[in-house]
Amino acid sequence: MNFADLFRVTMPETVLEVAALLVLVVDLTALRNAAQKTRLTVAALLGAVGCLAALVTVLNTGGASLSFNGDLLLAVGGTAAVAQVAILALTALTLLLTVGMDFTRHGGEYTAVVLMAAAGGMLVSAAQDLLVIFIGLELLSLGLYILTAFAKTSGKSSEAAIKYYLFGGMSAAFLLFGFSYLYGIAGSTNLQQIIQATSGFGAYHTAPLLYAALVMVAAGLGFKVAAVPFHLWAPDAYEGAPAPAAAFIASVSKVASFALLISIGTAAWNLLGGVQGMTCPALAGMPAPQTLRYLGFRSVWMLILVTMAVASMVLGNLAALAQTSVRRLLAYSAIAHAGYMLLGLAYYSQTRTSADAILYYIITYGLTTIGAFGAVAVVEQATGGDSMDCFAGLHKRNPLLAGVLLVLFLSLAGIPPLVGFWAKFNLFAAVLSVGAGKTAFGLVALAIAMSAVSLYYYLQVLKRAYVLKPVDETPVKAHPLTTLVLLAITLSVVLLGCFPALLQGWIASF
After folding, report:
1. Residues 310, 312, 317: CA angle, nearest 5 degrees
2. I need a labelling partner for 468 at 20 to 30 A (CA). Which of 56, 367, 379, 431 fits?
3. What are the CA-CA distances from residue 225 to residues 6, 96, 144, 273, 339 (Å)?
4. Which distant-in-sequence residues (6+ apart) come within 8 Å of 95 by Cβ?
5. Residues 314, 312: Cα–Cα separation, whole Å
């Protein structure tokens, strides 16, 4: 590795950092005396242009991945490139939704933090080394903590940021403990070296340490994706953070985290043929009752993921039924969706079928969630709240916004022919193609049943928007750019639902 290779591979992240610096310079010099909304608008547009420039570099980055002493540090292409493109596109959308909002007087700083957090997410997506993974996760997480607290006049924002930060610190500690144990077993921080160290018979003697490491790593990464039982921060953060920041947390951070989990899933699959269910040669001459079997990396990792998936699907959907705040409803919905994706990770295949299905799911979910939070932000700005009653009679106050909400919520529920249906269909089909037994069938049946439950609470919001009469018939107005972004997201959800092969073919092309 030399600095030229490092600069080439990290060019997209470098572009985002330069864009963040440029936004700060412009905001604090040329726009220092401009109106608050003007400063936020210019900063958001500059940030979106920076995302577009970084997107071009991702698509044009050629050559080999970045390695050090033969160990892979950062991957180029494949699922990493798909996740990075998605992160940049979703970041640009969240920045565009901030135009016209007034939750902060520091538009330049807000946009810069968003861009730096996105750079951290891109590092996580491509990382193949424990140290790089941790650096990327912390860069992403620190940005999210700051974004959650950006509504300085809101007590809920400050409370949510403190809770998010405290839980995040605990999760980072668990993650570091798990990483240190993996390093102790393998003598390396590289994922491939860890695979080799845990795939041989010699790993039998360190099996308890390996299992403890996997549990702690799962705890740390489970926090990032808001999986049960590491989800307690999510409802408060989604409710208290500014709406664009909540959309960023719900979409970009999940894309990065699940891209990392896909990398770990690929590593775990490679162990299946070498270690799972094998006996230790040192015990070969002992009587059968005393012969112990090495469960292997993948067996324990699968068990952990299945446990978190089931708990997230059940608790997320059932808890959402009791919510009166639409933001908290979306938070528990996000927990449930994380459960569906964890189920796909648990039943991972050697081919790219599972990876493509998970990427398809998280990209479409992120796109839909950003639109949902954008619609909620418009209603919240007009009514002063996000309770379900604030949506009463929305079809009369803003028919276009009500239509956007209808399409996006039905897509989140998985109703055909919207893209959310195909996301779930592909994911559940991938699970059944890998696990053909009764267990896999039962888990998929549970996921489908929980999806039916989710339809009920989504319809509760739509019922108020289309059936109930408005208490106040004052029109709900949105910024023209916000309206255009929401319409673009809605049309994308419909188009990708009617032609699912468009996104599937694009993902498969990497």
Report:
1. 105
2. 367
3. 29, 24, 13, 29, 9
4. 44, 45, 47, 48, 51, 111, 114, 244
5. 6
Could you tell me the sign of the dihedral formed by the alpha carbons of 435, 441, 443, 448, in that order?
A: positive
Residue reference for tokens 């996997």:
214
Evaluate if pTM is beyond 0.70. Answer: yes
Contact 314, 450 (CB under 8 A): yes
Residue 64 structure tokens: 């080999």
pLDDT digits (tens, 9 = 90+) for 79-102: 889 999 999 999 999 999 998 787
Give the bridge partners for 68, in sequence order: 71
The ranges assigned to domains in the chain are 9-276+295-508
Residue found under tokens 């007009």:
382
Closest CA to 249 of 130, 147, 180: 147
Instruction: Residue 332: name the closest of 407, 398, 401, 239 by CA.
Output: 239
Torsion of CA 62, 47, 25, 145, to 10 degrees: -100
Tell me the pLDDT tens digit for each residue of 17-39.
999 999 999 999 988 888 888 88
Q: How far apart are CA 154 and CA 150, in angstroms?
A: 9
User: Are residues 302 and 272 in contact, defined by beta-carbon separation less than 8 angstroms?
Assistant: no
> From the CB of residue 184, how many other CB atoms can be counted at a distance below 10 Å?
12
